[in-house]
Amino acid sequence: MELKGHIDPGYALIARAFVENFEQDDEIGASLCVYHEGRRVAGIWAGFRDGQARGSEKKRNDRNERLDGDKRQDASNREPWEEDTVVPMFSSTKAVAASCMAICHSRGLFDYGDRVSDYWKEFGSNGKQEITIAQLLQHRAGLSAIDRKLSMEMIRDRERLEGIIAEQKPAWNPGERQGYHCWTIGWYISALLARIDPKKRRLKEFLEDEILPYIDGDIRIGIDGSYDFSRIAILKPFSKRRGMFAMPFVFVKEFFNPWSLTFRTMLNPAFVGNHANFNRRDVLELEFGSGGGIGNARGLASLFHGLTTPGHPLCLGRKTLDYLTGYPDPPTGATGKSVTNGFEDIVLKQDAFVFHGGFMKPTERHNFSRNRSAFGGFGAGGSFVVSDPVEKLTYAYTMNSMSEEMMNMKKEVRIREAVYEVIAG
């Protein structure tokens, strides 16, 4: 395997961990970027946009082609991962959406304690009048599932979609519980952003106007017809069977129960149930701010580096950074006492994740940083971005061979441990 890019002296252990992802976990292609103490110390990539994992004899996705009919070369003529290669990054997209909101907060356009309905009048129907922006971004609004079956046509029609989600009745009393808003949170953020932003831009336009010009690499939430599709690496989804054994049993049981909140949250629209659908151009053209973004590690890391670096055009104000580096209290009911076990998520059926300002925060079980002030985003399969202001550290990873673990994926932990060992000196 040929490792490309640059890594500063003293950070070689991180490159070693990156290579081990290929040698030990059958990575196909990936990129890694690390900023430390104000400078980029690693920007590396390796492997293939297409093809098969090292040592595998099976053709990529059996026929080695995209689902929309784009024929690709046989695995023996694999296409190398390049510096500008991007890949679907699933829920790491949520961190990009949250960054758009944070930039608006830093500009004084809203406060996290404001009610959503103060900006979006229609949102206040069906018991949602008092939901705050903080509660929405902490996945506590009760809006993880949409009752109406959604189609690609509905998602393309933004006004129609926003009308549907504005009418949705919460599945629980807002603020009392946490439930992963797997697909819906991006649509709510985009609709809210369009009402907060003076130029009325939704996520796609805001990202391309306000963030893309100031970062290295690339991040998109919805591609245009002119976007070079050949730059996008092809995902290799994890085995459904292996995924079932990697997830908590109670989650798997609810996932296959069509009447459960978990099923209604995770599998509407229906096409999201097959990760390979995110290899399709028509899917990637959708503005899907929860999990439909594409990017590379350089783009993600440079964005988060910018958010926390004084003098950078994207640097957040002190008030915004203080909020994001803070740690939220568990959800509470009207009595002021938690109605669940701490941050237990009623969609994911476990106490594992904490959300704040739209970002993930470290937890005891998902301890992606030793500092509670850190924040980031993690996507299905293994992409991630982490900002740790205490350590003056930002790092990100993107890949196309999906892991089945829900958290603490072997590939992520290997990179994480190497990064923190190096900066510990």
Features:
single chain; alpha+beta; 6-stranded antiparallel β-sheet; 3-stranded antiparallel β-sheet; 14 helices; 11 strands; about 30% helix
What is the topology?
Elements: E1 4-7, H1 12-25, E2 29-36, E3 39-47, E4 87-88, H2 92-106, H3 133-137, H4 152-156, H5 158-167, H6 184-196, H7 203-211, E5 219-220, H8 240-246, H9 249-255, H10 261-266, H11 281-284, E6 294-295, H12 297-307, H13 318-325, E7 354-356, E8 359-361, E9 375-378, E10 384-388, E11 393-399, H14 410-423
Antiparallel strand pairs: 1-3, 2-3, 2-11, 4-6, 5-6, 7-8, 9-10, 10-11
Helix pairs in contact: 1-14, 2-6, 5-6
Average predicted confidence as pLDDT: 91
Shape: globular
Q: Give the CATH architecture.
A: 3-Layer(aba) Sandwich
Strand content: 5-15%
| Largest sheet properties | 6 strands, antiparallel
Strand order of the largest sheet: 1-3-2-11-10-9
Determine the number of helices (DSSP H or I, runs of at least 4 residues).
Answer: 14
Question: How many strands appear in the DSSP assignment?
Answer: 11
Helix content: 25-40%
Outline the low-pLDDT stretches: 53-73
By helix and strand content, what is the structural category?
alpha+beta
Distance between the termini: 28 Å
CATH homolog superfamily: DD-peptidase/beta-lactamase superfamily
**Order of SSEs, N→C?**
EHEEEHHHHHHEHHHHEHHEEEEEH
Instruction: Look up the CATH topology.
Output: Beta-lactamase
- Could you say how many structural domains there are in total? 1
CATH class: Alpha Beta
What's the quaternary structure here?
A: single chain
Q: What's the gyration radius in Å?
A: 20 Å
